[in-house]
Amino acid sequence: MSARLARRDHLAAWLFLVPVIIVMLLVAVWPLGRTFFFAFTDAYLDDPSVYSMVGIANFLDVINDRSWWVAVRNTMVFTVISVAIETVLGLAIALLINEAIPGRGLVRAAILVPWAIPVVVSAKIWEWMLNDQFGVLNKILIGLGFIDHGIAWTASSSLIMGVVIFADVWMTTPFMVLLILAGLQLISPEIFEAAEVDGIPAWKRFWSITLPMLRPAIGVAVLFRVLDALRMFDLAYVMAASNENVMTVSIYARDRLISFQELGVGSAASTWVFLLVALAAIIIIGALRLDRASGELTK
Amino acid sequence: MTDVALYRTVRKPAAYYRVRRRIVRFFQSAALLLVLIYTLFPYYWAFVSSTKQGAALYQAALVPALDFTYYRQLIDNPVFMGSLLNSAYVAVSTTFLSLVIGLSAAYALGRIDFPQRRVLLMIILMISIFPQVVVLSGMFELINWMGLFNRPSALVLTYLLSTVPFTTWVLTTFIREFPRELEEAAIIDGCSHFRILMKILLPLMGPSLASTGILAFILAWNEFLFALTFTLTDENRTVPVAIGLIAGNSRYEYPFGQIMAASVTVTLPLILVVLFFQRRIVAGLTAGAVKG
């Protein structure tokens, strides 16, 4: 292709990109920049035009706040435990569905339901099912004789984190299942047939063929889920408002920003959240690359 | 090698394998049934609860009472119907805008070779993963400045933050899957890029647009944080926020029957979409994640 044609192509490319660039500048880059800027000011939400620069005072304010660290710990506990359970459960269900079963399409649609319905709705449904007096779960457990009176799942501060994790697992395992299922279907069945003919037992086929070949799919799914879990807001907010036992970093940041109207400190908290998520992204993407690189070396 | 040989020497009669296969099948079906109950029961229970009145609500009967009073109350409730309309308006507009913007960008990123292509794709992916709370302060200012505070249109604008990177990314993957040969004749004829996109690719992209659009719609329909923050009054709320904020007369008297009826109503369109388009949804999800 001649240089002139190439230049014309590049120009066309940028023309096609104009809308996305304008929109991203407007709703992503500009607000993000303003958030970073406000983090260094003492502005309040009622009148953001009145402010003075305060340096890093807001950042220190946040990390000197005990409840910020509670929120960080909650977010970490929530992310690690829920993603771990989702991965294992997702893998198990994906393997089950991948077996030739009748009505696979319908099953796939059924497991998509928890993923598609709004988080708020799931939160409310579980809140109702876990109600201490009238919840169906307590009724079932009493009926089976495991407990003799209803447990206050959502009211107890020691159980609430478990409840939130449980609801999140219910909602997002389908996402894991689908990604892992897609990974499974990329593996050619001949490999398994060959291994089966050779008499390799099932657990060994799983451990040395399925799992290694699924690693990229699982890696990507875990990446998406971790980043999603780190910014979790709605589930904990609806189930427990600002209960300290499940307050996530997003809830902390929004509380200071909106409820307390502290634009400066709230922005600093948001910036910390940003750094936290960015760090997690870098670590996981790094780990995936490393994984791929070492995989190529041993080949 | 030695252990392979070892496995091979153990031979068993055909009947053994037949019985074993049957046992495996049995456990598979049982496990599958368990999975289905686990995923579907809560939703079924919400429906059952929404059709029970008064004291019956607190009984654990598994069959629905089929009393639709709560639903009739919802239909007669202008605030709830208003929020349903708001949700529909916001989700449909967001989806439409995101598809148009995403398709245009995806054509450039998937079909034209230019030096900054990879960098742009990375930036778009990065934008799609950063937490919404991070832009909250800046977005608040932007919305105020545009005079959109407490208007559903504010939500359409802010939702573009998550849906546009998503549609761009997924549509780029889809566009790349079409063979280049499709356009070769057109390129030789000196056809413009715009014509190639509109006349050659667009007619083929129905299924891809459907996959991407459904997912963008679900994202926009379910969003909570921005909707909670940027709307103030009941008549401008979307349904997730309306449901999130329903409260009883006191903290201990939760109107669960009504909440469940509202939940079923909000979710029904999504369930139908999932049932009809599950193949398309899976295609969109995996195109965005696995092949990226």
UniProtKB/TrEMBL annotation, chain A:
Subcellular location field: Cell membrane
Record keywords: Cell membrane, Membrane, Plasmid, Transmembrane, Transmembrane helix, Transport
Listed GO CC annotations: plasma membrane
UniProt entry tagged with the keyword Transmembrane: yes
First-listed, main subcellular location of the protein, grouped into a coarse class: membrane
Residue span(s) of domain ABC transmembrane type-1: 72-284
PROSITE patterns named in the record: ABC_TM1
Coiled-coil boundaries: none
The keyword NAD appears for this protein: no
UniProt membrane topology term: Multi-pass membrane protein
TM annotation in the entry: 12-32, 76-97, 109-130, 136-156, 272-290
GO biological process: transmembrane transport
Family: Belongs to the binding-protein-dependent transport system permease family.
Stated name of the protein: Sugar ABC transporter permease
UniProtKB/TrEMBL annotation, chain B:
PANTHER family documented for this protein: INNER MEMBRANE ABC TRANSPORTER PERMEASE PROTEIN YCJP, MALTOSE TRANSPORT SYSTEM PERMEASE-RELATED
Keywords carried by this UniProt record: Cell membrane, Membrane, Plasmid, Transmembrane, Transmembrane helix, Transport
Localisation per UniProt entry: Cell membrane
A cellular-component GO term for this protein: plasma membrane
UniProt cross-references to InterPro entries, sorted A to Z: BP-dep_ABC_trans_perm, MetI-like, MetI-like_sf
Domain of life of the organism encoding this protein: Bacteria
Residue stretches making up the ABC transmembrane type-1 domain: 84-277
Name of this chain's protein: Carbohydrate ABC transporter permease
Lineage of producing organism: Bacteria, Pseudomonadati, Pseudomonadota, Alphaproteobacteria, Hyphomicrobiales
Family the UniProt entry places it in: Belongs to the binding-protein-dependent transport system permease family.
Residue stretches spanning the membrane: 26-45, 88-107, 119-140, 152-175, 196-221, 259-277
PROSITE patterns: ABC_TM1
A single GO BP: transmembrane transport
Species annotation: Rhizobium sullae (Rhizobium hedysari)
Membrane topology: Multi-pass membrane protein
